[in-house]
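On to our target:
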Amino acid sequence: MVLKEVGAPTPLITLFAFLGSVPLVIGVVYLLPLPLPRFADPYYQYLKRHGLLDATGKPLPDADIERILAEREGDTSS
């Protein structure tokens, strides 16, 4: 290793190795097909902000969402 040849202390080498491996781990996890939590899912947040969730917090069916949004577009009082 170049740092050992220069005479860098072991904790410094460990720190650089850790900092170099963190982006790799994050990149690998990012590529996994894991679902987003609700606070990070933009579609869920849109539905929440526009009142398109049922009483349990689940999204309404797509047909209902489309109907409600179409009705709101025609309403100019808001």
The mean pLDDT is 86. Residues 35 and 41 are 9 Å apart (CA to CA). The helical segments are 2-6, 10-31, 42-49, 62-74.
